[in-house]
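2024-03-11 09:14:02 DEBUG pipeline.ingest accepted 1 chain
2024-03-11 09:14:02 DEBUG pipeline.ingest length=279
2024-03-11 09:14:03 DEBUG pipeline.predict start
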Amino acid sequence: MILSRRVVVSLTPLLDLLLIVIFAQYVDLKGKSERTVAELQQTSTAQLEAERQRRLKAERERDHAITLRKETETELEAQTKTIEILRQETDKLGAELAEARSAAAVQAEQARRDMEAAAEVLSDILKLPKEAFGETLKQLPIEERTAVRRELEDVRGKGVDKVIQHLRKLSALKKRCDFWEVFIAEDNTIIVKNGEMRFGPFSVESEDQFVLKMETIIGTMPEPKSLVIVLLSYAGAQRRVRRDVEAGLRRLCDVRLKAKYDGKKRFELAVLGFTTTPP
């Protein structure tokens, strides 16, 4: 019995020490566990926050994409409407252009006919070739060609007096050509008229003298237009005087004036014949 008591007494400190070690390990383990749990909680919170931020970012991007899509659809719809409006306007303009071209073609054809008709009437009245008036009539606006043709039609077949009076009034034609009037009176004196300018009466004894006198008169006139029509008329003048004046005018128109202006201007003589009305 004495031996057994000693054993018990000697194991008690070991048992205490064991308990202390176990308790220390427990405390240490508990601390580690708490730190681990805290770390896990912190990590989990950070991960959750990061996940939440990613989700929010994804939602913002989705909302932005939806907004962009709607804006693109709206813009596309507006552009589609604009394109349709432009297409309709283009079709309308194309139709108007085609109509205008057709009208212009008709107008041009009418103008060509009016020009040919006016040239034919002038040729018939003045006994001059039609090509003498071609370039001049081409310069007239379309509406003026029609007016000139109608005015000339009114005077076709009438007397010399009416023809001269009518030609004086053709303002559209006079803008692009000159009418020089040469009149031989009963007393064989000569009067020359160009618009408001009047020369004479004067007398000549020969064709050469008449040519020189005319060149002096022409030198005082303004620069002639590209076409000059010389209208010769006479009353009861002597045949010799009429012959000298007509021959002199032909020499001026065909040779001297043509050479003077290097062929850049055209001079035509129209012998209208007898009239009692001086210019």
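2024-03-11 09:14:41 DEBUG pipeline.report Residues 52-157 form one domain.
2024-03-11 09:14:41 DEBUG pipeline.predict end
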